[in-house]
């Protein structure tokens, strides 16, 4: 059986899926047609139901519940892993100044946008860009500030930019939960047996990657946007952990908390069950 699978070219995703898509493990008769795209493109594709299996931002999960189930493996949750709000210089009054600034956000449906909206509900002047365009937008003055994710967490200081707030720390202080950044979803119409097999295979793929770490494979390296290996490892160390193997009860509660926050921000009824979990 062939399934379409989408994830980002970032080292954490290629690290997780390398063994699966390159058949370093037994895929039990499943074949995967892979699309590598930035997460906001994947979010948009998921809203359209384009792929059988996809990495998505948890920020878009509430919009996918009719079509997709959330898998327990392959995602990114954790503490100290959240997006950062950066600018060219510090500000004197964060709340009031941010309300009057133009902010670059890495996609409308991203978890980064949800966390920013939670911290700064009064900020409405937003520009949505691909995540790797945000540093340059801030440096050039095209925007006053920007929310950065992924490898840009490790490079912004080298470019003379300053951190205004760690939005992940803000989430953790407000919720006492790890940050649900990105998860893996699979179409509901696919049989439960196949969904469970994919869950298991992703778990095995992560385990295989960890068994061979800190070796960086060619697959991870070729998609890493010219990062050096130290940055690749920092990226993997930050975003791939026990929650990537299985959400567990703590991870499930964190995802539910994010669903609650989404409902509150958007004035929607709270989803009080976890039927969205595979």
As for the CATH topology of the largest domain, it is D-Maltodextrin-Binding Protein, domain 2
Our estimate of the beta-strand percent is 15-25%
CATH homologous superfamily annotation of the largest domain: Periplasmic binding protein-like II
SSE order in H/E notation? EHEHEEEEHEHEHEEHEHHHHH
Explain what you see.
With about 280 residues, this protein is of the alpha/beta class. It folds into 2 domains: about 1-80 and about 180-265, Periplasmic binding protein-like II (D-Maltodextrin-Binding Protein, domain 2, 3-Layer(aba) Sandwich); about 85-175, D-Maltodextrin-Binding Protein, domain 2, CATH 3.40.190.10. About 40% of the residues lie in helices and about 20% in strands. The chain contains 11 helices and 11 strands. The protein has helices at about 10-20, 40-45, 95-100, 110-120, 135-140, 165-175, 190-210, 220, 230-240, 240-245, 250-265; strands at about 1-5, 30-35, 55, 70, 75-80, 85, 105, 125-130, 145-150, 160-165, 180-185. Strands 1, 2, 3, 4, 5 and 11 form a 6-stranded mixed sheet that branches. The longest helix has 21 residues, at about 190-210. It is globular. The relative contact order is 0.21.
């Amino acid at each position: 059986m062939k399934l379409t699978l989408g994830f980002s070219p970032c080292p954490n995703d290629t690290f997780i899926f390398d063994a699966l898509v390159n058949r370093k493990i037994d895929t039990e008769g499943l074949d995967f047609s892979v699309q590598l795209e930035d997460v906001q493109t994947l979010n948009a594709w998921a809203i359209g139901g384009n792929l059988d299996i996809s990495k998505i931002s948890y920020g878009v999960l509430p919009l996918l519940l009719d079509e997709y189930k959330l898998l327990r493996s392959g995602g990114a949750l954790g503490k100290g892993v959240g997006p950062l709000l950066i600018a060219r210089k510090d500000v004197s009054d964060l709340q009031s100044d941010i309300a009057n600034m133009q902010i670059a956000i890495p996609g409308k449906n991203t978890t980064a946008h949800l966390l920013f909206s939670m911290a700064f509900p009064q900020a409405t002047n937003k520009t949505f860009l691909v995540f790797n365009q945000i540093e340059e937008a801030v440096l050039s003055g095209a925007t006053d500030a920007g929310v950065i994710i992924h490898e840009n967490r490790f490079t912004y200081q080298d470019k003379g930019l300053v951190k205004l707030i760690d939005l992940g720390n803000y989430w953790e202080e407000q919720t006492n939960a790890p940050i649900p950044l990105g998860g893996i979803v699979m179409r509901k119409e696919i049989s439960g047996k196949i969904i469970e097999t994919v869950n298991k295979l992703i778990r095995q793929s992560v385990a295989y990657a960890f068994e061979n770490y800190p070796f960086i494979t060619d697959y991870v390296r070729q998609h890493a946007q010219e990062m050096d290996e130290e940055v690749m490892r920092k990226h993997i160390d930050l975003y791939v952990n026990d929650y990537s193997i299985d959400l567990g009860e703590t991870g499930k509660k964190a995802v539910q908390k994010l669903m609650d926050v989404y409902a509150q921000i958007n004035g929607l009824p709270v989803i009080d069950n976890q039927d969205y979990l595979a």
